[in-house]
Amino acid sequence: MKKVLTTPVFYEDIKDLRTGDIVYLTGYLTTGRDDVHHRVVHEGLTCPYDFKDMAIMHAGPIVKEGEKNVMVSIGPTSSIRMEADEAAFIERTGVRVIVGKGGMGPLTSEGCKKFGAIHCVFPGGCAVLSASHVEEIETVYWRELGMPEAVWVMRVNEFGPLIVSIDTEGNNMFVENKAYYAEQKEKCEAPIKELVALYMDVEQK
Amino acid sequence: MTNEEAKLILSERMERFIGLAATHLPDDVLEKLAECRATETNEMQKTLYDAYFTNLELAKKMDRPCCQDTGLMHFYMTVGAKFPYLGIVEEALRDAVHHATYSVPLRQNTVNYFEERNTGDNTGERIPWIHWEIDPELDDLEIITYFAGGGCCLPGNAKVYKPSDGYASIVKAVFDTVSDLGINACPPLIVGVGLGTNMENAAVLSKKAYLRPLGTHHPHPKAAALEDALKEGLNKMGIGAQGMRGNTVAMEVHIESSGRHTADIAVGVNVACYAHRRGVIRFNSDLTYEIPSYKDADAYMQGTNRTNCAE
Question: Is the pTM of this model over 0.90?
Fold first, then answer.
């Protein structure tokens, strides 16, 4: 059965979600990436969009701008770039759901645990699929940052799939996976190194 | 046909072809991706592949780029020495990229070094990137287009090793690249390995390696065995699609090589994401063309987009 989160999202709604769970989002989803994090965390500006109990997406969309702005394409960008600032961003804004691509690090998992938030992965490269779940771009803030960096406020319907990568306990799927892959690497390399052990020998004609 | 006429024709056809290649995956990649999908058994991996394929269908139906990162345009060219319009090709390709940026549309990704300003139309210093090879006998022009996206360019690296490091250095370079930054580059990946004399020679060959049709092998049986062994070994790590634990991280591993200095082993590793937008188009000497990489290319190419674009 489809698990759908509807904004505003409260701690109660997400506290039982665990890494690997798949959810969808209905309500509002608002973009914010490098520059938005910089403004809020380092320049001390208050974001004109109130992220309290709402959802942010690390994404730089292609928007067809006109009387009515149309979302052409919105794929997630690599969340790891926001790692240094995300915990402080959660603290300042009260954002509950972070959507992006790939994992985030231990600073963010600490922040998610402390302030009751989750990070979710939307499949990379699926820009048309995600745009098809955007019903409307309601408004845009900080447009002067450029199209990819601006704050686009979208109304979305069952936006997903979103795979929980950090939960409210601070479990972090990607940190755990990386450790697992590091463990596997040597074992998987060994037979191939054996295969090529004699490759430096001169071939007989 | 005058050079001016030829330039316009080539530029319009390439603009349209860029649109085709941004919105569709080539036949061999689609087929391989379906095979990768079949290897996955867990719920999360199945969900990811469902999203991949639904997205690809939507992109085709809605005529939109299948991935928002349409990269920087790279053209890998093989031109016959007797091709009559050599002088206009570069300018025609720049025009095509400029127009395609608005008509497809492509994301505006190109920034020149030091100016650090977005050029707005995906042309820039030496961009589109054009790599030439000459065939002494032919009179035609083959162009391979590639959208070099940010995420899949990031893991790439090239390094020169000592002979005492042996071929094991190649194995290590491949595993390090894929298991570190490769997991964020939208697996399942096509892994290109270039073995050369020095760093840049190995790097170029790593690019040519992943541009090879999928499933082809290096002509030397030892290299072909290494391609298969690397693919199998990488997939045993359990990385899967999106680096989220599954059975297939590498669609293929391709190796290309040149002669090496007896004192060096140069290794380049370059990865391409699952949205492997590698288009192949061949122009005859009269600029008629064929498109071997997509079976349903004709219908798309007959459409136009230059007329209704706002720049």
Answer: yes
Q: Is residue A179 part of a domain?
A: no
The ipTM assigned to this model is 0.90
Partnered with residue B252 across adjacent β-strands are: B190
Provide the residue range defining the domain that includes A88: 3-174
Identify the structural domains of chain B with CATH numbers, from first to last.
3-149+276-302 (3.30.1330), 151-272 (no CATH)
H or E stretch at B18:
helix B3-23
pLDDT tens by residue, B37-76? 999 999 999 999 999 999 999 999 999 999 989 999 999 9
In the chain, the amino acid numbered B201 is N
**Given CB atoms, is B255 within the 8 Å cutoff of chain A?**
no
Look at B229 and A72 and tell me if their CB atoms are within 8 Å.
Answer: no
Region at B126 (left for phi over 0; alpha for psi -120 to 50; beta for the rest): left
**B138 residue type, one letter:** L
Catalytic residues of A: 37
What are the angstrom distances between the C-alpha of B209 and each of A29, A153, A170, B139?
40, 42, 41, 25
Residues on chain A touching B63 (C-beta within 8 angstroms): none
With respect to residue A56, please indicate whether it lies within any of the assigned structural domains.
Answer: yes
CA angle at A100 for the pair B104 and B36, rounded to the nearest 5°: 75
* β-strand pairing of A55-57 with A97-100: parallel
Greatest alpha-carbon pair distance for chain A in Å reads: 74
Per the structure block, which two tokens stand in for B13?
């056809």
The answer, for B246 touching chain A at a CB cutoff of 8 Å, is no
